[in-house]
Design a protein that fits this description.
- This protein has helices spanning 19-32, 40-45, 51-58, 64-85, 97-105, 120-130, 152-161, 175-183, 198-204, 216-226, and strands at 5-9, 110-115, 138-140, 168-172, 187-191, 208-210.
- With 228 residues, the chain is α/β, with parallel strands linked by helices.
- The protein has two domains: 5-17 and 92-226, HAD superfamily/HAD-like (Rossmann fold), CATH 3.40.50.1000; 19-89, Orthogonal Bundle (DNA polymerase, domain 1).
- A six-stranded parallel beta sheet has the order 3-2-1-4-5-6, with helices on both faces.
Length: 228
């Protein structure tokens, strides 16, 4: 019997390009607080962290109570965008993402999961907007776990699937994904089309770097052979 293989994806910057929504909501949240928003590159650099942790990283000099107000404002502006313009429905899947998921989902003994800094509500909206929910047998969000790079999300995926960490791979676009994966004992793949640079992913210790979704299946097979 073939041993189970677990493949866990980050969402924002890995499967879906949501930077327009993230940047707009963050700019509006800081403006509501009467503060200048950080540069776009700084905002995208914290994508993947749970929202309160991300706001603290962006504005450590701002008092904690004010950061809480910015956090709440971000959530409100993101929700308003969802109502007004469809939100996650207007955040496109990266080219090749669905085809890659189709290939992996059809592979015997391969289980797919998600580990994301999004809220459960946000992930549910995303799954509904892009008809993605059927691909994943485990989905971990910021509502139930410490922020990445803490390994709690990935530990939960192992518990839910019964897969061993030695047969599991974390795929993401940020150093937070890579460090989380390594800490949990997963192999790691950094994708270079997202929000952290290739150099940053390499420094974090990604086992493989992938520049196109079409190369993902081969990278996964290489990693599984290495750990067989």
């Amino acid at each position: 019997m073939t041993a189970l293989r677990l493949v866990v994806f980050d969402v924002d910057g890995t499967l879906v390009d949501s930077q327009r929504l993230i940047l707009a909501a963050m700019r509006a949240a800081f403006a509501e607080a009467g503060r200048d928003a950080p540069a776009d590159a700084e905002i995208l650099g914290i994508v993947g962290l749970s929202l309160p942790v991300a706001i603290a990283a962006l504005a450590p000099e701002i008092p904690e109570h004010e950061r809480g107000q910015i956090t709440a404002a971000y959530r409100a502006h993101f929700a308003a965008e969802r109502v007004a313009h469809g939100g996650e429905a207007n955040a496109p899947l990266y080219p090749g993402a669905r085809a890659a998921l189709d290939v992996l989902a059809a592979a015997p003994a391969t289980l797919l999961g998600v580990a994301t800094g999004k809220s459960r509500r946000g992930l549910d909206h995303l799954f509904s907007a892009h008809d993605l929910g059927g691909y994943f047998v485990t989905a971990q969000t910021a509502d139930d776990h410490p922020s990445k790079p803490h390994p709690s999300m990935l530990e939960a995926t192992l518990a839910e699937t019964g897969c061993a960490a030695a047969r599991a791979v974390m795929i993401g676009d940020t150093e937070f994904d890579v460090v989380m994966g390594r800490t949990a004992g997963f192999s790691t793949i950094g994708v270079t089309w997202g929000y952290h640079s290739e150099a940053r992913l390499a420094r974090a210790g990604a086992d493989r770097l992938v520049r196109d979704f079409g190369d993902l299946a081969a990278a996964l097979e290489d990693l599984m052979e290495e750990r067989a």
